[in-house]
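Go through this chain for my students:
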Amino acid sequence: MTSQKRIFSLNFLFLLTAFLLSIFCIKDPAEAESRTDCLFNIETPILFAHRGGAGEVPESTKEAFRHAAITVGVDVLEIDIQVSKDGEIVVWHGPELENVFDNEKNVFFGKRDIRETNYAKDLKENARVIFPREKRTIDAHDRVPERKMMTLQEFINLVIQMEKQLKEEGKPRTLHLNIELKGGKKFLWLFGNPAAPWEGKDKNGKAVWDKLFGIIDPEAGNRTIIIASNTYKVIKAFRDENGKNTHPIKYKTNLSTEEQISYRTYMRDNMIVKLAKALGPIAGFFKITPRQKDSLKDYAFQTSHAFASKELSQAVRDKGGHLYTFLTTLGVPGFGAIDDIEDEKRLKELIEEQIEYGVDGLMTDYPEKVAKILEKLKKPEDASKTNHECLKQ
């Protein structure tokens, strides 16, 4: 073969390779395609502020939610709600009040359980949330009203006020909500009724379910509201109540931990997944865990970063669903948070990994830190990208 023919052959192979690469869209993991999230109708990856950003500000307070919504500009505010002893719906993860102090008595509530505490009498006026949560000294800034505990109604009022402020500042934006219902006490996994607090009444005799729907229903048309619970009995009780004629507005819900077990074969292998794979068939036989949903278009698959995988993302997507991962701790040894890593380069790599898996959203205690990394990973065309996946569902 002459040198001229060899050059022609090499050029042809080069062009053919480039052509094939362009067809199959081989990309760097950090340049994973965004898509429209059909639950929130915004581009992925979606940023959730977990408890308003508990790693950067005092959790579940006005200060936290303003930090997340106004300063950072997150897409979704994630909150937890508990039912106090007197039937008030309080924005709190808890159930203990270890990082809450009495502003009048200058004492911490410690191991006290919010479900056994009278909100109106003991928390409404004087409860303040400390930051960082391990801190046990009180200074003047800890006493400011912006660090008071909040009821769900006060939180909703704040969200409306923040949207009004954003509009006045020429930055109109919808603040979406992810509300997790915390349950009552239960013995181990199977016994007790964790939905009991929600099935009770407040101090005025009003059903707590009616109180909850009375607060969120007026906002259902203004923003996406996902109702969540890690506990199957709690989220099932909500779905059952939501299906009644007295509560006609239908809400999207998450999949509880028990429901997620049926997707264990798609999850990234680790100690918990291996255990679930071993015990899953037994649990299924005794109907301890629910079976897979035929469709996920009305559900948010919210799970730990430790379980994310391309296979899980695809399985959820094939059923019309969306996958959101917590970058926070799972609360189990060996399954800690990744968003608290101080090494920005390493955190960026871990976030890139989640995006490469195809997750649609990230829940974090450090929204400001994660938002900066996502901005660096964002491609110029992402801002104008549109698709019509949601219209097909």
Q: What stands out?
A: The chain has one domain: 32-93+154-392.
